[in-house]
Amino acid sequence: MLKEFTKGIFKRNPVFILLLGLCPTLAVSISVENAIGMGVASTFVLVFSNVIVSLIRSLVPKKIRIPCFIVVIATFVTLVELFLEAYLPGLNKSLGLFVPLIVVNCIILGRAEAFASRNPVLLSLSDGLGMGVGFTGALVLLGAIREVLGANALFGFELVPGFRPAMIMILPPGAFLTIGLLLGLFALIRARREARGAE
Amino acid sequence: MIGELFIIFIGVVLVNNFVLVRFLGLCPYIGVSRDLKSAAGMGVAVIFVMTMASAATWVIYHYLLASGPHNIWFRLFGDGIDPSAFNFSYLRTIAFILVIAALVQLVEMVITKSSPALYRALGIYLPLITTNCAVLGVTVLNVDSFFPGGEAVPGSFLKCLIQGFGAGVGFTLALILMASIRERLELADVPPALRGAPIAFMIGALMSMAFLGFTGLI
Fold first, then answer.
1. What letter does residue A13 receive in the DSSP assignment?
2. Nearest residue on chain A to B19, alpha-carbon basis
3. Which domain holds residue A118?
4. What is the ipTM, given to two decimal places?
5. What is the pLDDT of residues B189-202, one digit of tens each?
């Protein structure tokens, strides 16, 4: 069970290795705060939809399984939407369009289809939790890099007084550039490790 | 009115391009942009689905979900009840995603019948339009921009249609630009670690910078 949890964080990280869920990753990683909010919301949906899908997996006819999974996911997303609207209106506003769009985050449907519909409840739960933590980690890493370089701040606090940050990093191009360089870095590390293994 | 529609169209194609400025539909942007032909096919499919989805979700939101004198439930059962009791807009996400899923199925059936070659080229990406965030994104954006406070602005149906169509055109524009750049990139000497997705994202960064130049156009 622990293995299902940790694989989502490093070996099969949804963002950096599987290249899933890129849209919310790039869009909300303007600051660490947004990144954590989005990560927690997605993890909530991921865990609960995995559990429910795993529970109903033998009841759902194979042909209509995808629409069924989508309805399950959409239900939890609606819960998150209403919760954010009521208790965290500031975060809700800065995440904006991407709160309802958790529904189409490919990580969630991907895990429901590839894992939860074939495995028992507890395994699915730990898989969902691991993937969620991996997704949140990737978001926070990206958010931290962009916030430090683009706004000279972390969690909204100024870092170096008087330093003028590179605005471009919190604009859309900065997101593309950061994820491109990070992916390249991870590919480099993997290639090095494989080369060492081959020796 | 024509001017307003034109501004919506330019705004969604260039100024707030769905892929490069709003970050919607990145999965196909990276996944289907390896050659020009499948990029064009995917683009046409997305334009079609987005326009249809905008029309369908407008009807559903206006008549079934939003409260007001148009609401069908209010007309049927609303005798002597306050119309605001018939506000089902919280069902927006579930209703919209189901409509889109059904539409995609329809497009898939049409393409399978009419052009098997195109179907083979698009491969797994056609069913993935369902989870293409750009399609759900444009329908939610339509509601956010043309139903402020749950009340439809004048001409909202046409505006939704134009915004849906324009979003598809913007997506296709970005996808085709990307595909033609990547076709040339095949011959370029890219460092091994950056091959594939990383270099695609960096090109995306440059294109996005170029599209930022349209800010202030409208």
1. -
2. A23
3. 2-144
4. 0.82
5. 888 888 888 888 88
